[in-house]
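User: Quick sanity check before I run a bigger batch. Here is a single chain. Can you write out its predicted 3D structure?
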Amino acid sequence: MADKRADVDSDIAGLGFEDALKQLEAIVARLEKGDVGLEDSIAAYERGEKLKTRCAALLADAEMRVERIALDAQGRPKGVAPLDPG
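Assistant: Done. Predicted structure follows.
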């Protein structure tokens, strides 16, 4: 069982934001329909939580990258600044 979970985790870890979000939306739609058995619901919920975590991590990374954009005197992007200038 642990090997199967590791496969799922590595599968999710390789997803981009759009793909992870699409899968998460599909899980939510499936669960909202209510025609999924208990065991399948639990498995879908667990995968959904992992997908949500992946999406949140990708968004946080994108936010950090945007915050690092440096502007020139005219307010135009001129490149990126180090996240930790110290």
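The helical segments are 2-13, 17-33, 38-67.

User: Great, the batch can go ahead then.
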